[in-house]
Every structure is written in C-alpha cells, then in structure tokens.
Specification:
Urease, subunit C, domain 1, Diaminopimelate Epimerase, Chain A, domain 1, TIM Barrel, 16 helices, 28% helix, globular
C-alpha cells in the first residue's frame, strides 16, 4: 500500500507479557520527539491523553494497549502550533465575499456581484483583495463600486486587515465626508475627493454600520475553523487578539467538547476586557490559555500603514505613524508587567519595532522570564537588532517574506530591506522564534510555512529567486518554531510542543519526512492523521 494513502487502523493488542494497561501504542514509526536533545524514537505509549513512554521496540512488551497503530515507517511529529492566527476570522470568511487573488477592480466587483446574487445581504462584506497583485499597484478608488452597488453598503477588507475599500453608500451610512478627521488612521482622498479607502483606525468609523455576527454564526465559524486546523495538522492556535465575549464563547464550546482545538487567546487591547482578566486572573484549562494582551503599534506594510523611521521609498513625504502613543504604550506595559501578563505587540515598521523594543527593555529590566512577544517583527533597523534578547520573542510569519518579496523592496528600498524578514538575525539575538501564519491573511498550510522559512522562495515556483538566503532558517530551527518554541512562547512548554512523557498526546502523522526530503517536495506533503489527546481528530482516508 502506498504510504501516502495509509489508513490508520486500531486493533486489540493480544501480545503476551504486556503489563501496564494503556490506551494506545504506536510503533514502527520515525518519531521526531523535538525534545531537548532532539531524540528520535520508534515507539510511544499513550494513557489518559498523555504520553507515558517514548522509546524503541522494547516498549511493545511492557504495555498492554487497548489499541495499537503500526505507522509503517511514516514520520510523526508533535502537533503543529500556529503561533499567530485568527480562528474566528477564518471561520467567518464563509459568510464573506472571497476576494483573494483578484487581479483588478473589475474582477473584484464581479466576485462581489456573484456573492450578493447568492446571499442577498443588507450590507455586503468581503475580504482578501491586494492591490499589489494588480497591474496598477496603487490603491483602488470606489467609482466603479458605487456604480455597481448604488443602494447597498459594501465594505471590502484588504487581505492584511488594515484597510477597507467601501462604496459611497457605506461612507454615507458611517457619516464620513471629506471633512472627517481620525487619529491613528487615514481617510484617503484624491484631489479632495473620498476614494473609499480607509486605513487602520479610520476603519473603526465603518464598524458601527456592520451588524455583529450572531452567536450561532460564530459557533458555526469556530467549528469550521477547527475543521480546517485539524486538516492542516494544527493542534494549538495562538488567537491574535479577541474580545472577552468571544473568549468565553470559545471556553463554553470547549467545555461542551464541541471545540477540541487548543487555543492560546490574546485579549484585544480593550480596557474593559484587560481589567476584567486582571481582576479575575489568568484563565487556564487544558484547552484554553488566557494570559496575554494583543496590542497594535502600527499597521501593515502593504497598505503603507507600517510606521517607518524614514519615508516610504515609493511614497515620499509619507512614513506613517504609531497607532498608540508611546506614553500609552508605556502605561499599558507597566500595568501588564506588574500583573505578570504577557504583552504581544504587533509591530511591522522599523519605527514601530524601535518604539516597542525601547518600551519592552525599559519595563522588563528586572522581570524574570516575561516572554513578551513582538508579533510580525517585520522591518528592523540594523542598529536595533541588539535590542532583542531572551526576554523578547519574535513571533513571525515566514510566508509573509515570500508573499511580500515581489513589492516590499519598492516600499523599503535596497538598503532598508536588508533588515526586513530577517529571521536568522532575530533568532541569533532572541534565541527562539514562534512561527505562525497570521491566517487568514496568509495561507494556514504549515508546509508552506516550513518551505518559506527554509527555502525563502515562492511556493510552486522553482524559478523564483531566493529572498535574502542568509536569513533562511534550518529545518531543525523551523520545526522548533512550529512546535517547542511556539509552546514556550505561550508558557506551555511543559505540556506540549514535543513528544515526551507527561505531555499531551498531540501529534501528526505525515506521508513524507519533511526533515529529509528535497525541500521542493515539502509542499506536496499530506497530513495522514492529526491526533489530539491520543484520539484521531482528522484522518486522510482517500
């Protein structure tokens, strides 16, 4: 039987000489434990959802398992951890017009029309457009959108989540005109006229006209997102900023055993939510961990909302600015440090990273093991790399380096880009990296993450250039970033991230050994099965 089409099966163990009764024994496997010594094994044993033994064939005679799996030589890894994604957003996309990979305003409008013909929504919501994929890479304007949809509001989110394209109806409903002012964002105009482009905090002006998704829709969304995660071998997700209400919704679904996925939930930067969890204390179960706050220091590079020290190379006179005043950042940092909550700050531009690094180093001077994170850590001034240290963890998205490489140099120029997506340099200073995707901004597929980190090339494009190969990660470092280091960044290294005695029996079986095969072949790797607590949550039965 071809290994890529292996069907997992469970049979009653009748081996003579078994002593301790256990739930599961997996043997004849190529097991990457990802423990401190990076040991390999061929057998492990699971009882009550945890690993109780890891080793060689000698374990077969020591245990009496209820179920046995012959892995037939396939590679097994700890369950993959996506350090930064958006679980609820991923699931809610099923209710939105999909605008990914559109190549023009005309194709965008066609997609929106098809969506509206199917759903007939009172307010049309869509996401995923990226003008950098178009012939004209400047921001679109909304004239054609106004003509196509004169009577219904249309709100279309850019792929990075830091810009809206809205029609005139939406602007009117939100009370936005050419005189409207906003701090921490931009209402883009051309020759004094509104274009329909709203950046960063200007987007909040439109939020009030968008009806909130119902609890039932959110439940459907979370369950759909869980299904997608398990299909991709993900057993833990870092939820990059979520409301108090949605945190408790996740908790309720987990307690009912409907949501089995493990979630590291970062509290959104809302004073009421932060004060609630500081007052009530950290929330920790086997499936949910709430002990951190997600903060936005700036916007995204693709929409020129990232805060740069010098002007954008392709837009003189514009460098953007911080979304949060530095004194507010310091006050929040002091509060979280005092209460031993983790601070996870989105910083893309070199000015944002410099400001966050200054605040972190000022506040964390006498804190032991705070593990504060910089989410994205995308563009760093060369002189600022030494500001990283073992107290500050870069939480990065390797696929962003390759998806941005076609236009990032236009934004940054030849010199400044040397400090962008510099993963090896960041690792050298911090000692650990947490790897994720920021899904649904980037593809959730962990093999694309692995490939981008190691090969630094676009997927399925053998002729594409290698982007700054000096900042490639090794396969070993990449695997650590997707498992043990990601668990460490969540304060969860004692319960997950490696296949070791006492840890949750979360693991994935692959049809190829991604540590050995040609790097191009990594992208064709398939998940054979995803196992959580020793139980199958996804099996590829094709």
């Amino acid at each position: 039987m071809n290994k890529s089409y292996l069907i997992l099966y469970f049979v009653l163990c009748t081996a003579i000489g078994c002593t301790e009764r256990v739930d599961l024994l997996v043997h004849n496997a190529k097991i990457y434990t990802v423990n401190e010594s990076f040991d390999k094994a061929s057998v492990f044993v699971v009882k009550d959802g945890k690993f109780v033994a890891v080793g060689g064939e000698e374990l077969i005679k020591k245990y009496k398992p209820a179920n046995t799996v012959d892995a037939r030589g396939l590679a097994i890894f700890p369950g993959f951890i996506d350090a930064h994604g958006h679980l609820l957003s991923l699931g809610l996309n099923q209710f939105k017009a999909d605008l990914t990979n559109v190549n023009s305003i005309d194709q965008l409008i066609e997609r929106v029309k098809k969506h509206q013909d199917k759903y007939n929504q009172k307010i049309i919501i869509g996401r995923g457009w990226d003008q950098n994929q178009w012939g004209d890479k400047s921001f679109p304007e909304n004239q054609k959108l106004n003509a196509a949809f004169p009577d219904v509001a249309v709100v279309l989110e850019r792929i990075d989540g830091h810009a809206f394209l809205v029609n005139q109806k939406a602007l009117e409903m939100a009370g936005i005109d050419k005189d409207t002012q906003v701090e921490g964002g931009q209402i883009v105009k051309q020759k004094g006229k509104l274009t329909g482009i709203l950046l960063d905090k200007a987007m909040a002006l439109v939020f009030k006209i968008i009806p909130e998704f119902s609890k039932e829709d959110k439940i459907k969304a979370l369950l759909k997102a869980q299904e997608i995660c398990f299909e991709n071998g993900l057993t833990t997700i870092g939820e990059g900023g979520i409301s108090k209400k949605d945190i408790y919704l996740i908790d309720s679904l987990q307690r009912k055993d409907l949501l089995k996925l493990r979630v590291y939930a970062m509290i959104e930067n809302d004073p009421h939510a932060i004060n609630h969890f500081i007052r009530e204390g950290k929330l920790k179960t086997d499936l949910l961990n709430v002990r951190s706050v997600k903060v936005f220091a700036d916007g995204a590079l693709g929409s020129r909302g990232a805060a740069l020290i010098e002007d954008y190379s392709d837009k003189k006179g514009h460098k953007s600015s911080l979304l949060i005043p530095k004194d507010s950042l310091i006050r929040l940092a002091n509060l979280l440090a005092e209460k031993s909550f983790q601070m996870n700050t989105h910083a893309v531009g070199d000015a944002a990273n410099r400001g966050v690094l200054e605040v972190y180093n000022q506040v964390l001077g006498f804190k032991e093991d705070p593990r504060w994170r910089i989410e994205q850590a995308q563009v760093i001034a060369v002189q600022d790399f030494p500001r990283f240290n073992t107290k500050i963890i870069p939480s990065i998205q390797p696929t962003r380096a390759t998806s941005d490489m076609g236009w990032a140099i236009d934004r940054l120029g030849k010199e400044r880009i040397k400090g962008a997506y510099a993963y090896k340099d960041l690792l050298d200073w911090s000692g650990a990296l947490a790897l994720g995707t920021d899904f649904p901004v980037e593809d959730i597929n962990p093999f694309e993450t692995f490939y981008a980190a190691v090969a630094r090339k676009l997927p399925n494009d053998k002729l594409s250039a290698t982007f700054q190969p000096e900042n490639s990660l090794t396969r070993y470092e990449t695997l650590l970033g997707m498992t043990r280091w990601a668990a460490y960044a969540n304060f969860e290294e004692n319960e997950k991230g490696s296949i070791e005695v006492g840890k949750f029996a979360d693991f994935v079986i692959l049809d190829q050994d991604i540590m050995k095969i040609n790097i191009q072949s990594v992208l064709q790797t398939r998940i054979v099965a995803t196992i959580l607590n020793g139980k199958i949550v996804f099996s590829n039965r094709l």
